[in-house]
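To assess whether ligand presence alters the predicted conformation, the chain was also submitted together with zinc ion. Input:
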Amino acid sequence: MVGLTNPAYPAPKMAWTDKSKPSLYYELSLIRPTERKKRMPDSKFEIIGNFHLHTYHSDGVGSHRQVAWAAAQAGLDVIVVTDHNVWVAGKEGWYTHPETGHKALLLMGEEVHDEGRSPEVNHYLCLGVDREMREYASQPQALIDAVDRCGGVGFIAHPQEQAAPLFNEPALPWVDWDVVGFAGIELWNYMSEFKNYLPSKPVAVLAAFFPSLFISGPPRATLSLWDDLMRDGQKVVAIGGADAHANVYSLGPLRRAVFPYTFLFKALNTHLLLDSPLSSELVLAKAQVLSALRTGRAFVAYDMAGDSRGFRFTATGQGASAGMGDEIPLNGPITFRVSSPLPASLRLLKDGRQVARVRGQELTYEANEPGVFRVEAYRRYRMKSRGWIFSNPIYVSTTH
Ligand SMILES: [Zn+2]
Ligand SMILES: [Zn+2]
């Protein structure tokens, strides 16, 4: 079924609220420069995307055009709309912001969960699907397989989300872990993390006005979960998402549009590495984006803490080289290189354990064992060390 609006989420009555300067916080922020294309240290073509957001077709506020304009304004290249249990036809394509002239590609997806279940756990991001997926909502494995069959890429959303009882927000984790075949997990979800910082009303008000004093990184438990899943031998791609809604919240006399789209699109994103520039043909561009997501040629970045464009993690061995998402055979020593566009605390992990750490912009490490290698980068921002970049892994495999 192709719906225009999910009946579970009637269109909100409030006006569009995504102003370019939406908050006191925003006024005080150092927003990353709008310079669009930066010279990269390799032949990859880097684009920035956000792959978890909602419009008024479910519980968000903006229209497709408005979220695409917000993305363009924030400097993003691509977004995938993931409304709850509704897939909308005829919206894919490029949208040009009428004032700045920046454009962003909008692709269609869907965040599917079983509305007959209480609480409504098991949220699955179906990116790039070409039809409604809601009919599979009550069968997680069938849903995962259906996304695959139609050429989409599926991610388990906010896999370990906690509740926020003060706002009657239940925990919405993934619970059916016997499934197979999902492309990856949403390692870091901005709004899910924010829900963890609402223990009392005064703190909630502070967090709503100054979220970046709180946002710090993906949950440690989710990083461990990711490593555990990969230790079992499967490749698991990590993405980061805004989960943007731009909803208005009330707390006593205070009424505030929390987290406008543009704000969130300048915060937590997923950067994709392409082999060629993003095509201007919709079919080709969509294939490029989905391929990078499926293979994990990507890293998760909290861009508000520093412009992460240009971050690279590569490996070279005898006659072979690899980047994020790739596998490289252990035919001899493997040399890993991490290159950061800004000084940071760079940590190389093997199977979830730190094997090297450098403060700076370059890290080199030689490995002689198979394993799953990935990078975490932390930067000081707003008086605290915060998670900045989380790479997808390079898989070193044994040769037989
Ligand atoms: Zn969700
Ligand atoms: Zn969502």
